[in-house]
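Handout, page 2. Input:
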Amino acid sequence: MAARPTPLMPVEPAETTLTPYREPPSNVEAEQALLGALLLNNEVINRVGDFLKPEHFYQPVHGRIFAAVSRLVDRGQIANPVTLKHVFEGDDDLSEVGGAQYLARLAGSAVTIINAQHYARTIHDLALRRSLIGIGEELVIDSYEAKLESDANTLIETAEQKLFRLAEDGMVGTGFQSFNQSAAQAIEQIEAAYKHDHRLVGVTSGLIDVDELLGGLHASDLLILAGRPGMGKTALATTIAYNAARAYRAEKDELGRNKRVDGAVVGFFSLEMSSEQLATRILAQAARIPSIHLRRGKISTDDFHRVVQAAQEIERLPLYIDDTPQLTIPALRARARRLKRQHDLSLIVVDYLQLMRPTDSTRLNNRVQEVSEVTQGLKALAKELNVPVIALSQLSRAVESRDDKRPQLADLRESGSIEQDADVVMFIYREAYYQQRREPDPTDAAKHAEWRERMDRIHRRADLIVAKQRHGPTDTIELDFDSTLTLFGNRARDGGSYASADEAPF
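Output:
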């Protein structure tokens, strides 16, 4: 006997709450007021044309009117309802609001041009808000959709890039400054250098001769530190980063805000080494213990206490490490901005240049163009955040084919773009690195003794070759280098000997 079907129970309708429809943020009256002021006096375009674009208008027809006025003014012609009439003949959108008479009403209703710039900034701000809403809606939709090719981190990265591009479009330039303003800023920097104990304008590197030649690491400068593998680029970069962070000192200004007086808050982007490896290297240098001993655990109880003490000192320093591999310029820029906002970032180190990727949307097959985009992006970041950016760079193998191994500007990989965009180009060169590989046969006592004598003279010497400096002279600086600690220091000024590890900056 078949079972009787169970009658379906009536389902109570679910209580739904309708989200009220919200119009995108806009101000049509402000758009009309600005266009009226433009038609009344074409000079208004010079006040707003550097940041306001046709696509910022909410009403499409208003954007086309603004674009037409801009084109006529660029040609040196007058833009008014009469000259614009033939431009918009047959324009359906303008016909819907009144045709050519609408242009006349816009001009006739304009009372003053004084508030034109205020109207323009209102239109610009509302356009950015609409774009933000669009980015937010796309992020919500993409987050709901589960796609194998885009995980949550990819969505975050994409959102950061979109926000970055929006921020770029939304930036309003400072425009022209009078010479009085520029001179006042220059005098302020000179006064700060005069009051500084070491007469520095920029961030200290902790290396006396480097600071004397460069005057410190200057805000808005892109500094390239290049060398062949094994020369110690990362070691020198960590030395400078650590010294700058350790020297950091801030004072309260008249508004109660922290103002940097010395040193720097450092952001270290390590694309090659992990943060743990980089931290181990800094700990080894600070504790005066070879990092290979730390990695293998070959340390005594006293060594361990020194490491703990060094770690306690370092953890208080304003030194931040990001070890994300294959960073793009937009991603690096977004993270640097965040660090600037949260901790007043004042020095950026990138290790190293060739591991960075161009913007995903502009991946190129030409490596020179890709590196050019990276260097231009780093220079723009230095100017935008007003901080020095140190970028490490590899050298081409052309160095190895010469008898004289000292690097030159032409040895930079993709040198055209790197050399052009950089304010300072420095090469690290250690002769002992090459001499060590030229050890003669120990059975030839005379030659081996001569080689040993030369190694004794140069084994602690490293040359920092400043091959380009936009603000000053070029020169070669001799530094001390302890190969067991991969530690750079100052050369002792006693006529030729070098500083011991205890006299190094760490």
